[in-house]
């Protein structure tokens, strides 16, 4: 009887501990997983990349690379979840000294990385069963994307550009979320053989790649205005199939933050339809 009472007490204590978890999510790719597992009631704050994923009243604590220890600690969280990009280190050290757990989760660019991240977040949020169910949904979605690809159609060459005023345009090479999304959408990335990560290259090099489609974030295109204005800004692109056909397509920029995520998969599915007009 005493053993049963002790076991019951321990179970109640553990349950109370799980229920009182207070999480700060420093990354949209983490917040979307927490939401998908139904654990959003554990969130007490998020970083700015997650702003669109939470209710209006949720505290937003700036950018995940520039976190403030004072702001975080004042919310009395039990743990901070983020990628290896969150910081600065001095802030993370202060947070840990205050007794708050700092957990760095996988932020890789592959489907396997996403599955690992789901498992990690599920364990930290004490929602392991929901994590297993979400992993199954991800696998099913990837299978569906692969099934819907038009294998008999010649693959389009899609070049992702990151454009900032006053600086050379960057292309997304291999080991980037943009590259993973392009490939999941059934296209090829001509920059993957030339560069790794996001790197600036010359306009002449872009022309040599002869992309069929230029991919930009929605925010970038809204700042530029239109495909015509992009070609005015980068006239050499007119010597590519993308430029000749004014084939400029957008992707939600949040799908590219923090590694391949749930939003990335949704965008890959949508872009497959756009690339091949299905």
Automatic annotation (TrEMBL):
Q: What is this protein called?
A: Hemin ABC transporter periplasmichemin-binding protein HutB
All copies of the Fe/B12 periplasmic-binding domain together span 22-278
Which InterPro entries does the entry mention? Answer: ABC_Transporter_SBP, ABC_transptr_periplasmic_BD
Source taxon at top rank: Bacteria
Q: Where is the signal peptide?
A: 1-19
Species for this entry: Photobacterium gaetbulicola Gung47
* Keywords assigned by UniProt, alphabetized: Signal
